[in-house]
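Readers of this paper often ask what the protein records in our data store actually look like. Such a record has a labelled line for the sequence and another for the backbone structure tokens. Nothing more is needed to write down the fold, since each code stands for a local backbone conformation. The record that follows is passed on verbatim for readers who wish to inspect the format.
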Amino acid sequence: MLRGIVLRSPHAHANIRGIDASKALALPGVKAVVTGADLVPPGKTLADVPDLASNLMATTKVYYRGQAVAAVAATSEEIAREAARLIAVDYEVLPAVLDVREAMLPNAPILHAGLRTRGGDPNAQTNIIAHHVMAVGDADAAMAGADVVTVEGEFKTSMVHQGYIEPHASTATWNPDGQITIWTSTQGSFPARQNTSAVLGHPISRIKVIPTEIGGGFGGKIAIYLEPVAALLARKSGKPVKVQMDRADVFEATGPTPGTSIRAKLGATKSPHSTTRMPASASRPFAAVATLAERLGGQGGEQVFRALRLVDGRELHQPVGVRVRRGRPLAHDRPVGRRSTRRQQADLAGVRQADRRTPARRRRERDVAGHSTHRDEVHFP
């Protein structure tokens, strides 16, 4: 069995002008090298490779530090690493944008030249995929009728990785009859088989995926990263190939929760609204009647909607009007993972917005309500 190593981009944003693997292929022990050119469908060009495939192996452009640009299979891991260092990649380094709000500015570097905002100007280049609005009632009218706008704030969260213990690893064979078998660390053997088929243009009936013990995943091992790469190396070399990420590869090249920027505004009346539901243990001088929120980055606008109606995990008020706008701008980072921590990001903004009491006041109220003051608390700045 051969060992595979993936060469990754040191740049967050760059055009790939050329890749020269001749020195790597001349190194004794090297059996195969693959690049984005191996993913081009018959009769197509590098520019025609779909996003799913180009994320696994960059073709004409890299969009984040750590994106794969080539892979080597050799008789040992040491030889494969040395060969990867011998691959010469000609980059044209481009300006990068790393903040979701900066990505929305008119002069921001454009990531995808062909991207247009869904429902927007078809001729305007943009980094914004779409705008979504979720609303209940008339939030503007409710805010105008509020006795006081209690709080208005902006909350930012950083990228958070799932942090599973075992890194991604895949071993593949490609038989002369076209049968592919892949042993891989995955949370979903059928999605892995389907996506590998789509990337390679190979019949799904000729691909078998065998899931191994995953050592943690938390939604981060549903997408594919190494499976098609190992399969291509196996086809070129004629031998089974194992490809494994190290910890740096996992953090740089797999799907975390993206950073977000959330703005929220809460209006209130001085007396409880008729639809307000407040438990006896709660001490609140106001009843919220309106909430306005904006979330940029990631997913889950509906979770901001939910969080703005909760305080300490309890539904303390029923807003008369709620509106949440969610933007989906692109910045230079990896595609996000599934089932990651985007709900906690929304809860942070919603709860902190609705509950501006000091820790000391929260402890006093808990004493009055008969709750223990000794449970652990997490205070965000």
The first strand starts at residue 2 and ends at 8. Residues 342-354 form the longest helix (13 residues).
